[in-house]
Design brief:
Length: 368
């Protein structure tokens, strides 16, 4: 630990199952399901966040002398930049051109989830910010001890962003679009807040989905059966196949997440003639519905709009959600009603070492 924290110690835990779930949840809170012990455990136990996948769990905890954990962070040793939804390939190239080795790097994040939320977990007590600053110093120390290029904290909260600024880390800022409930009690209330042109277009799109014989329904808890996950996994994989990507999540993950998160999982399914044709996976937070993955087999007009945006809006009142947060950019008449929000992206480098390497590399190249 850094000087001044003699009563505290920090260590790495390589499996989140070895951290008591109740302790983790107390530090993380219940606002954001993506940093919950249940979600992270499901990722590890089903092979999604493992060393083989390039996400070696290296969770950091800060303890008092009696073993009480006062702070923690979901951290991974990364051998690539995939699954982060943050593009740092330019930095990786620059680092390596300077003669360094960018990977592995330390990543404090919710794997495969570009969702803003707490990353420096320390509860909400009077000393929580001090604990977060201690956690930041521990991260810097471990970055040096592990001899890795950098440590990154991605999609953190604005409060954490301010604290990381105090620690003199380097900030990056990105943009997302979120839907906010402006006091709507019904879906018609939401439509009434739009211009006439947008209102008519949304109603027209909804009719066209229904005219194709497509039925959309939301499932959660025990209503989700294995056959629903079988179908959804096909949709999920097909989405990556179309984009020449690699599906990060395994089939086993979805059932494990359901078993651990229960009613926080909301699966929207679209059926046609009794057969599933599309689906969208959502997670419930304390006041938000997070749209995570979506897929479709076939080309159905406006179907992307229906399960991914409109259906979630319909469910808002029953789930007391104030925000809808699709994590992928979707351009529809409904998305035009969304306001822009900013996820905070933060990173740090051992800049002196980088400058030294760059200078040495430049001198070497000029001598050729």
């Amino acid at each position: 630990m850094p000087d001044g924290d003699t009563a505290l110690s920090a260590r790495i835990v390589e499996n989140i199952a070895n951290i008591p779930a109740d302790t983790w949840e107390k530090l993380a809170g219940d606002d954001n399901p993506f940093v919950s012990h249940q979600f992270l455990h499901a990722l590890e136990e089903t092979g999604c966040a493992t060393n083989e996948a390039g996400w070696l769990p290296q969770h950091i905890i800060v303890e008092e002398t009696d073993g009480t954990i006062i702070a923690a962070a979901p951290m991974y040793l990364k051998s690539h930049s995939q699954g982060e939804y943050v593009f740092d390939h330019g930095w990786a190239n620059a680092w390596e051109r300077a003669g360094g080795r960018y990977y592995p790097k330390m990543q404090v994040a919710a794997p495969f989830s570009p969702v803003s939320g707490p990353r420096l977990l320390a509860g909400n007590g009077p000393d929580s910010d001090d604990s977060r600053l201690t956690l930041l110093r521990a991260l810097e120390t471990m970055c040096k001890q592990l001899d890795v290029s950098s440590v990154h904290v991605t999609f953190c909260t604005e409060r954490e962003h301010a604290l990381i600024g105090i620690a003199d880390w380097i900030p990056r800022v990105g943009r997302q679009f979120h839907w906010h409930n402006r006091g709507y009690q019904t879906f018609d209330d939401f439509l009434g807040a739009l211009t006439s042109r947008k209102r008519k277009m949304i109603r027209k799109e909804r009719r066209q989905v229904a005219d194709q014989g497509i039925r959309v329904r939301a499932l959660s808890g025990d209503d989700i059966q294995p056959e629903h996950w079988d179908a959804f996994y096909q949709f999920y994989v097909d989405t990556y196949d179309r984009k020449w990507g690699y599906p990060y999540l395994t089939r086993e993950f979805f059932e494990a997440a359901q078993a651990r998160l229960g009613q926080k999982i909301v699966l929207v399914m679209a059926d046609m003639e009794g057969l599933p044709v599309a689906g969208a996976l959502n997670l419930r937070g304390s006041d938000a519905l997070y749209g995570r993955n979506w897929g479709c087999l076939g080309d159905f007009r406006f179907l992307h709009l229906r399960p991914a945006i409109i259906r979630r809006s319909n469910m808002r009142s029953t789930m007391a959600c104030r925000r809808l947060r699709p994590v992928r950019k979707v351009r529809t008449k409904s998305s035009a009603a969304m306001s822009r929000s900013k996820p905070i992206l933060v990173t740090t480098f051992p800049m002196k070492d980088f400058a030294k390497r760059s200078h040495a590399s430049a001198k070497k190249n000029s001598a050729k």
